[in-house]
Design a protein that fits this description.
alpha+beta; five-stranded antiparallel beta sheet; 26% strand; DNA-dir_DNA_pol_B; DNA-binding; DNA-directed DNA polymerase; nucleotide binding; mitochondrion
Length: 721
Amino acid sequence: MIRVVKRERRALVLFFHNFARFDGILLMRHLMMNHKDLRCEPLMRNRIMYELRIYTFPKPKNPEDKPKKRLLFRFRDSNLLIQGPLKKLAESLCPELGGKGGIDHNKVSIENMSANKESYQKYLRQDILILGGVMLKAQSIFWNEFLVDIVEMRTIAAMSLDIFRMNFYDDVKHRIYNLNKNADSFIRRGYYGGHADAYIPYSENIYYYDVNSLYPSVMKGNKMPGGQPVWHGNLRDKNLDDMFGFIEALIHAPKDMKRPFLPKKDKNILHFKTGWFVGVYFSEELKYAKTLGYKVVPLEGFLFEKMDSPFGDYISTISERRIEAKKKGNQVEQLGFKLLMNSNYGRLAIAPDSTACRVLSDDEIDHFMKSNDNIIDIFPIDDGQYLAVYKTNIFDESESEGFRPPPNTAPHISAAITAYARIHMYPFISMEECLYTDTDSVVLTKPLPEEVLSPTELGKFKREHEEYDKGIFLAPKSYILFSSEHVRTHLKQKGAARGAVDLEWFKDQLNNPELSKVVTVDNPFHVTWKKLQIVLKKQSATAQSKSEKRIKVYKRKKWVDTKPFYLDEKDLLLSVNSNKTMQNIVMLLLEENTSLKKKLNQSRFVEDDLKPTDNIKSKKIRKRIKSEEVKQIDNQSINNSQETNPESMLKNTEPSINSLPHTEPKPHSDTGSHTDRDSSSESDSPDDRDSYSERDSSPSDTRPSNIIIVNDDDTEPPYWF
């Protein structure tokens, strides 16, 4: 390879398929241990290797000069650009090169390497040939369509953003501004992902629907936040209908609402609860919530101008290319254009926090340890070489030379898009016939009307998995579709134990949701970071369907339904008890809202220092609040590390109410991710759950307390199966 570089007189980009999680780790170890005249510099983020740069140090002409490093190669992952198995990619893009071939990897060993050398080399040569063919064909497609060279890109998301900026972005008509640190931190608290919930655990009549390109469909036709954001420290007397932006608000969701709309993020999990809470939301989401019966009191926020979507032409063009690929039957091109449409918005809200890796020598390690407070671990790889794993934040990196907004980020755009997507889905989620939902899909017990169906039109639904008529839905990311007519099933089960579950396991879980099974699973690609090795590892995993997102409802000892958790008034009061400024705001709201005042006064958890008979005078409160509101936004410190444990709302250190029930653990920060995960490792004590679970069981009942029992008798068998 070095000879090729010398001949080409330039640094080369070399691709491996699945380099980020496999080949890159092994290659870096090999180079560090066997080519110590070279230097490895990995570009890693959250343990995914996006690039590995290899440098050499030629001897300077002057012996007194310090050697300067010279870049030889960039190793990258083709699977991050063109996703899919290499075999299928080759069949679609370069079938003339022949098939991928294969070997039994389980039989490959050091002992038989020499005996099978010829067949192994033939397999590897064919692998290299078809990967080269795939990349050349893909390079030609994207260059001819968009004048973008994939060799210059690391990921499909980066390429998507580059195509948009170079070919479709109008900087005059649709200018997108970078946010300062305060605005970025505040708005990321209102950046939520898709809605995933399991409502009804079992049905023998199911209709599974997916939305055609949910996020691209809402990117195309909705107003986006434009212009520079303006901070408003007091929105309590303003009309929500006149606002456009991201607002922290006091929320009350009706207790009788079966399928709540607004999310509440706790420990990086999206909960959908009723009752009292405070959160940051996109204004259009709050307006829609009001039409559903929510009570909304705006408190403060960043407001924007309304801007026509800058993505209209981009989405239309890529969508047309995808439809053409579908007509040609080219699945790889279909997937590529689909990823281009869906990757754009997420890249704009890339998370500021991540982990990174760096290779250090003996001469560098002491200085690195003294100058870095965010080190996670340091592993010795070989004599004189170490791999350091540490936390990094793009804001901190920018602030080293004065704050500069990270390039090509616009979380306000991404947050608005995901909010519009949840609005689009809610009419279907709220149907009584909805059994299950996950981001862009719903499972119903009746068919949707024809006017909302289309195989290709963006934003409309298409039916999937028509061969199945029954379904068990235990929790988000835990369900199975099946039919009595054939043995095939379609299942999803999160976690390492996925391969150990089947239809019988789902039936057992439905009959007794508290069951769990410890299984041994093989992980053939376990990464040992201390040694930079990939090994086969047997590990124990627990197969279970535990979910704390909703309360189970039992009828005649059968689990038949679920209902949301309720956050009552005492939770609101307890959450503001440690926050004096928030206490002042609540006191003002008490004065202005007699019904709220009456409800809060009736709570047996009202602390003495919060009662309206306190000596705190409203004039003093208003004066104190007013004095805080005139402070400049640049003097604020919006701390985004404790979303639901805020400091002063008016001092803008963390404007939020910690509206947590006894059962809800205090959340960690989440400033960039909008994944929706269901916790299976955290459990609530029975006493805590009883505080809001409306239990109706006998003292001898040993079932968990996060359930509701209706008409519990023994006239029917207590099992579904």
